[in-house]
Amino acid sequence: MVLMGAIILVKIIGALFKMPMTSMLGTVGRGYFQSAYEIYTPVFAVAMAGLPVAVSKMVAESVALGQYRQARSIFTVSQKIFIIVGVSGTLLLLIAAFPYAFFVANKKSLGAILCVAPSIFLCCYMSAYRGYYEGLRNMVPTAISQVIEALGKLVIGLALIKIIMNRGSAQYLSGLSANGLTEDMMSGGAYTVNVFGQAVHNSAEANSVIVPYAAAGAVLGVTLGSLLSLLFLMVFYRFRKDGFTGAMVASSPAPQSGSVIAKQMIKIAIPMVVSALILNVTNLIDVTTIQARLTSALTKDFTTVVDMYSASINKAVELKRLNFSDHAEVMKYIWGAYGTALDFRTLIPTITIQLGVSAIPALATAWALKNRDDMRKTIETVLRVGMLIALPAGLGIAALAAPILTVIYGRGNSSEAIPIIAPILIVNGIFTPLMAVSTPTTNMLQAVGRADIPMKTVAAAAICKILCNFILVGIPKINIYGAVAGTILFYVIIVGVNLFFLLRISKVRVNWFGVFVKPCIAALLCAVTAFAARGVIVRLVPADTSASIINSDTIGTLIGIALGALVYLASILLLRGIVKDDVVVLPKGEKIARILAKYGLLG
């Protein structure tokens, strides 16, 4: 609950960062920001895969056996390993940045990629601290450091975007003034003005020069946020240590050698590293393939693709946010819209990942003791809580996709792209429950000693995804929506196969009616209520044509979300879709559980 609470807060802060960032940078600038993450994410994920879990698992086992000196040795060894892995990951990204920027993404993405590279080392090193404290069952340092990291990104990133955008605009305007030029005179192309050392013929070209630097500033904010988070963990450990008393340490046996600990740590991590390697190399190929096939679709039939998004593209050209004659920029515009939808796709799964992390020690213990009842309870709890969170959130997002996007981006530089983003968001919302339990099912297979199954599942799903994307995205009438179909196929395969083998290996029978059907009924009622309530409010409240954020659409959307949430809570209680174990972990949970049980509202 501590980790989930922190992640929810981090996601709120992340939204407060990405919403104004997207509005300030525009859809093209968002594409540059996303390009940095496209290459950063696979390197980061492989560098981080397995080792934090291995540290946590080994520390927890050592503490349970009273081997406190061993626990500290594990932490010391993990620091050395993470330094090596972090430095290697940063160097790898720096080396790959140039060919990736020039041959895959866009050379203007290079600055953003270089700015994000140091965060691999910073995040790796801080994971030694996080893994250690998680193994000690102390989630507070991890939670606080995550919030600090997000706040640093928010404040520093947005400040750098603002400074760079203002400086670039000031250079353009001062160039006009110094040469006695006007915007109308520049439109003819006969005059140039220098912006950040580059000659531009008009404000659209000036924006094309400024935005890549601003995107790099946004990414630099992410890196500096990671640095602040690491500094907090180092200070926390310096003053709070691990809570072991001198007597506890003195009475514990001598630890194993560093080489033995390192070998054991790596042995535990290898299957997860291989899985992450397969997944993220596939994602990198996937990203490359999507952009290449999107370019191919534009080359085959530029008119068909542009006509699908004519309203958005024409508006972007009119507002001088897009150079229509540059096919690469049009591709980046569509790709940036797709990336904006991805912000919402990862929102709920990022929260439910914590279910899998917390399930590993519980399910591993039950598996070791052959306690089938505890195995069933753990598996059902993870799946049920995942559905309780993901179903209403996903279906609610699908029901209010366009209104939510309008509230968030309706007054920014991406407002005209909403018709492109909304259909992607609707499909992602419907399939959010699958995405939400994909990682937890993988974690539970790892807990029962079958990390090889997720590795094979990911490989099979990845191949299918790449093939699907390659075929569909290259078709002009489908283009970027083919990537959505590939993603859905990917998660269907992973969750389906993982669940099949998890239940087969554990020999557990899950109560699907309680786990899935009850939350689904309540979530459908939630989505219908939200959609209907928003529609009624918009019709009743007079439309506001001003640029104010407080208008009928915003009011209707917020009221729709609130009423949908109330209907969901009431219906899930009346359906008895929540059990006592789901409630007792909350603050004053025992008291809440007694009240609900008194009225027969617990399953």
Short description:
With about 600 residues, the protein is mainly α. It contains 24 helices and two strands.
Supply database-style keywords.
mainly alpha, 2 strands, globular, 24 helices, 603 residues, two-stranded antiparallel sheet
How would you describe what is shown here?
This protein is an all-alpha fold and 603 residues long. The protein has three domains: 1-256, no CATH class; 268-395 and 414-510, no CATH class; 515-603, no CATH class. Helix content is 81%, strand content 1%. It is built from 24 helices and two strands. The chain has helices at residues 2-48, 51-64, 68-103, 110-116, 118-135, 140-178, 183-186, 203-240, 246-251, 258-300, 302-308, 310-318, 327-345, 347-368, 372-399, 401-409, 418-430, 432-447, 452-473, 481-506, 512-540, 552-574, 580-583, 589-598, and strands at residues 193-195, 198-200. A two-stranded antiparallel ribbon has the order 1-2. Strand 1 (193-195) and strand 2 form a beta hairpin. Helix 2 (51-64) packs parallel to helix 5 (118-135). The longest helix is centred in the N-terminal third of the chain and has 47 residues, at 2-48. The protein is globular. It starts with a helix and ends in a 5-residue tail after the last helix. The model has no long low-confidence stretch (mean pLDDT 84).
